[in-house]
Amino acid sequence: MQGLNRNTHKRAGAGQGSRRGRWIRQIVGALLCVTLVSGPAVTAFALDKNQIVQMTRLGLDDRAIMGAIDSAGEGISLTSEDVEELRNQGVSDQVIEHLRRRGMIQGEETPVEEEGAGQEEEGPIGPAPAPAPAGGEDDWEREERERLEAERQAEIERRANELNEQREAEAERQAKLERAAGQLPRAAQQVRDGNNMAGARMYLEFLSYGPEEGSENWYEATFGLAKALYQQGILSGASTPLLEVLMAGADKPHFVEGFRMLGELSRRIGYKPPILEELTRFYVGDKNEKFQAEFNYYMGKFFYDYNRMDLALEYLDQVPASAKDYPESRYLAGVARLDPAVNDIPGALRNFEAAILAAEAAPGGNEDILEMGYLALARVFFEVGFFDVALFYYQKLPSQSSRHADAVFESAWSYFMKNDFKRALGTFHTLQSPYYSQRYYPDLYILESTVYLNLCMFPKSQRALGEFRARYLDQRPLLQSYLENTFEPEAYWQLMEDAYTPGKSAPIPELFTNAVLESLPFYNVHRVVRSLEAERNALKANISALGEFGQQVLERVEEQLELKIQEGGIIVQQRLTAVDQELENWELRSLQIEFDIDSEERQQLQQRLQNPDYEAPEVAEAGTTLMVVADDWQPWPFEGEYWLDEVASFRSQMRTECIEQ
Fold it and tell me: Kind and range of the H or E element at 77?
């Protein structure tokens, strides 16, 4: 018989079992080796077909099984029916052939092997048979043999029992899974009826039994759980199952609805993990035009938020004019084109104009985009030096708008830059009205002082600097002390909470906390914090219905809330630090103006001494803004009252007091 080679004739799957199987085989092999080498007079122990089957089910290597057969001596006698049963139970042909060669199958003669047959090239197949006893075994040898055999048998039985328990547990799990799957339609109805927690509990029970991921029932249960939590306001809890639903593919039945839920999660709790970029791999061209527009706008906004303007424009430019988000898409595209990496100012202007026109045409109007579009156009034209055009767009903002103060303040800069001092002074007067008195505009007084200096009105210039010192510099030590002694982000967040909570007060003036309120990053974080707080309250009210899952989500929400508060606190700290630095810079500028006042005042005094009868000519200043005044307008002197619809209309009638050389 040709010798078997262990590298080419292994039983299928041998040597590929689990880690547990490998250590079982090592134990049995060690026991066999001890049996073979413990002494020259070891008597063979009994082995039957059931044990051969058990060793096969344990995943033992064929060589180990054949070694156990050899160690058992001549005590095995099998019928042809036994052999057939061994095959049915998975015992390999190599092991059965070994039994045949050893003469352990009834009715078959032991084959005569040629010299060298039955041996591998590298040595024997398994351990050699135990030597015949030479006078019998002593008591110690017999006890050791019996102990090892008992341990081996116990291990086989333990493993068999473990496998049986696993099979029973799996059968029980499958039964529970099938029962829970039968309840999925009822769970869906509960969610449709608004009984979100009842439906969520049923979905969670089904998912706890470990259904196959990607199966139809798994998909329905995962989406149902996400929808139930979303409708209950538990948005962080909905995010994980919702992400799994979306990543299952755009061809799935709930992709469109899930994507729209994602948009709300992004807006309300800032949920936009980087993995959402994977959504761009999906084909959505088979969806309706409305959804395609929503998809392109969302992905464009996603890349915009991650400052990847090239990809943002790729998606934003695909939003059609008929889409609900078209005005927003044009505005964002305009801002993206102003990014230094793109630097397309003409394209940005076209986008802002398109955003304004679309906002005006939108049903009910779109005031936010309309105002932001006007401001964007005004700021672009200001930066390129077209101050009259910038002023035209600044004046488009209504006086009731929350952005009106910024528009008026930036208009003051425009008038100042074009030397239209009459309108500049009128604008300064507007910004000192009660409507804007708590706004953080420290450079307002520096501009005013500079204008008076240019008009040679030195006492008024000094007075403006005095107001700057009283309003800002005198209160700066309180800000500096707070910054020097406060380090934790949570403390900065609490500062803002206390500043605007009735009955509480902040350790720094409201003028400085208002500078933080005007920060867009702070506004965005504050909005997310409030949403997370509402979600935490919703979770606590329903924690019993969600069980362990609810507790996990609650912990995650509290962790996200803590992180957002820390992020917000850092924003507050950075903004207050910037305010302190700005005040230092404006203080240096005020000192320079004081020096210029002294110098110009001496020079003007010399000019007046030389020209005592000089009178300034009554001519229009070169920088006066071009404007058309309607017939029904009439000048009205300021009598100490401010009217909201008139605050942007103040003009100064002051003439320069400078003496020309």
Answer: none
pLDDT, tens only, 364-376: 889 999 999 999 9
Q: Are strands 119-120 and 123-124 parallel, antiparallel or unpaired?
A: antiparallel
User: Which of the four pLDDT bands, split at 50, 70 and 90, describes residue 620?
Assistant: very low
Assigned token pair, 261: 């839920």
Q: How far apart are the first and last CA of the chain?
A: 127
What separation in angstroms does the CA of 28 have from each of 33, 52, 148, 288, 565?
A: 9, 13, 10, 66, 60
- Cα Rg of the chain, angstroms: 43
**How many other β-carbons are positioned within 10 Å of the β-carbon of residue 87?**
12
Q: Phi-psi region for residue 570, left (φ > 0), alpha (ψ -120 to 50) or beta?
A: alpha
What pTM was estimated for this model as a whole?
0.69
**What phi, psi does 255 have (nearest 5°)?**
-65, -45
* Count of CB atoms situated within 10 Å of the CB of 293: 21
Rounded Cα distance, 44 and 81, in Å: 25
Q: Which residue has the tokens 């999925």?
A: 184
**Residue among 213, 146, 206 at smallest CA distance from 177:** 206
3-state SS of 281-307 is: HCCCCCCCHHHHHHHHHHHHHHHHHCC
Phi and psi torsions of 78, nearest 5°: -115, 145
Residue 495 has pLDDT above 90, yes or no: yes
Share of the chain above pLDDT 70, in %: 80
Task: Classify 505 in phi/psi space as left (phi over 0), alpha (psi -120 to 50) or beta.
Answer: beta
Q: Under 8 Å CB-to-CB from 1, ≥6 apart: which residues?
A: 101, 111, 113, 114, 117, 118
Other beta carbons within 10 Å of 599: 10
Which position has the higher pLDDT, 396 or 95?
Answer: 396
Residue 190 has pLDDT above 80, yes or no: yes
**Please, are residues 566 and 469 in contact by the beta-carbon 8 Å criterion?**
no
DSSP 81-112: HHHHHHHHTT--HHHHHHHHHTT-BTT-PPPP
In sequence order, what are the beta bridge partners of 124?
Answer: 119
Per-residue DSSP letters for 387-435?
HHHHHHHHTTS-TTSTTHHHHHHHHHHHHHHTT-HHHHHHHHHHHTSTT
Closest CA to 336 of 367, 359, 303: 303
Residue with tokens 């993990």: 273
Helix (H, G, I), strand (E, B) or coil at 231: helix
pLDDT over threshold 80, residue 117: no
Beta strands in 432-528 (DSSP E): none
